[in-house]
Amino acid sequence: MKAVKYLLYALGAVLGLAVVVVIAVAVLFDPNQLKGEIERVVKQQTGRTLQLEGELHLAFWPSIGASMGRASLSERASSAQFASIESAQLAVRLLPLLSGDTVVDQVRLSGLKVNLVKGRDGKFNFDDLLAAGAGSAAGRAPARESARSARVRFDISGVRIENAGVSYRDLKSGQTVEVSDLQLRTGRIASGVPGKLEFSATVKSDKPVLDAGIELSTGYRYDAAHSLVALEGLKSKLTLSGAELPQKRLTIPLSGSVQVDLGKQSAHADLTAKLDESNIRAKLGFEGVEPPSYNFDLEIDRLNVDRYFPPVDEGKGAAAPASAAKKGAAAADAPVDLSALKGLRARGRLRISEFQVRHVKLSKVATDVRVADGRAELGPNSASLYQGALAGALTLDANARRVALKEKLSDVSIGPLMADLMQRDFIAGRGEVVLDVDATGTSVNAMKKSLAGNARLALRDGAIKGINLGESLRKAQALISSKSAQTLSADRAQQTDFSELSASFTIRNGVAHNDDLSAKAPLFRLTGAGDIDIGGGRIDYRAKAAVVGSTEGQGGRGLDQLRGLSVPVRIVGPFDALKYEIDYKAIATETAKSRVKEKLQERLGIKPGQDGTLQDKLRGLLRR
User: Fold this and answer.
1) SS3 121
2) Are 560 and 570 a contacting pair, CB within 8 Å?
3) Start-to-end CA span in the chain (Å)
4) Taking the complete model, does pTM exceed 0.85, yes or no?
5) Distance (Å, rounded) from C-alpha 23 to C-alpha 29?
6) How many Å apart are CA 335 and CA 331, to the nearest integer?
7) Cα 355 to chain center, whole Å?
8) 495-533: per-residue pLDDT in tens?
9) Mutual orientation of helices 127-138 and 35-46 as an angle, nearest 10°?
10) Long-range contact list for 328-332, CB < 8 A, 24+ apart?
11) Residue ranges of the alpha helices (H) in 246-321?
């Protein structure tokens, strides 16, 4: 027992001596005397200028700590400021150090400002600091560091960062981003101990011009043994405002949980958010291997993309001013940049109950997404639209700057679809549309002009809007004698009904060529061939309407003399100002031939329809 007693006396004496030494150092030692030496060493090691403008203070009991006033660090070999701070405090409890525990009383930073710059060569203005840190770490003894780290248990009472800010400039793109009023406050950070975190900041960007406010609060738990971090009860709010936003101001609340595995460099999140009228459920994952890999599962009840992008000038009306037309063309020729796909690996699924884009309305949208090697494949995809269904796939290739689309629309009401998609009402009917096309380019117009592939459609019980062929043919009787052509502007109040219509198209360089149009109507049979210039927004098409069957209905009464004739109709002009040209001269010629034929048959006693007999008798007469 005496041995234990003497041991305690000795230990008490040692501790007493240590306290005396600490007090003596705290009283007699002035850390400000080392400011010049610290600044010299930093300059020598980094090539940067450190200025310690504020006072340095040290504390040794009951915690070892240091605090400093204003300080700044320059860019390498420059007087430009890289970072500055108004004040900083750090304190570590002394007694737990004796048992290998690091218990930090507090970490406080106030007024931290950092200026980040990305040069035209892609390098950052802090790359030299990272290289210096890596070199220093490489010189350590790995085995001893590992053994030492295994004995240290970190326990931080709290972290507080106040009024911090970060600025970012990209010298190549000209983009600037400013983060200001950054606030961070945490509770205790220790293995297995739950804590609370609060964060807020304001972000301003010039490309695009946007202001954002971020507020976040969450509970957290850190598992040191397994290198796991869990955020639970996460709640955040993102507020966006800017002239480029159609709503000018948008608030996005978000909640959920996040799991981070520091050892495997992976993270998984289960989140819910509300974007305007959209409720979003997202399961997100990240694997930090090289290259990083992402996975996701998104479910959205409704999403109207048109709400978040400015309307495209569709060029309605031929009388629009030239300046407006140029403005509309510029707006339509939006850039197409697929470079974000390069270096990205992702896999997931997307489900949207109600979806609208470019005025087109879909429901029950579902697609699988795979992104790798600069290519994104969306499919198989499916959706319901305009009383029908859609199925197919979409491929985006950043390497070839190519977009490929394979889609089949089944039993779709084509009229409302075209009215929403193209803002023009020129055809009605229900049936099937098949597309197998691709395009390359860096803008919308370039892709339109490079469009290639095939398409076909088969419709029933529909109408061609803008012209009533039956009415036009009825009027033709009074105009046949003019032996000229008449041009008519499209009239939305007029239409030509058909029971069946089919056509196929071969598309090259943005021009869709068709030569097998076939349409059946009560009054006529329609055939045709021509070109639709998708890139130029024009059409040049020649159709032939053969008058057959009953001439009643659709203004066809009294057209018996045109029965059996093919009436040429030319459709020409820009999409928004089509012209219909009926060649009455050709009708007159065909009518004259028909009358001569009928007279010859009558003279020779040949019944109508016996053309071969007529030809034989004519050859016989010529031999006489």
Assistant:
1) coil
2) no
3) 156
4) no
5) 10
6) 10
7) 15
8) 888 999 999 999 999 999 999 999 998 777 889 999 999
9) 100
10) 329/445, 332/444, 332/445
11) none
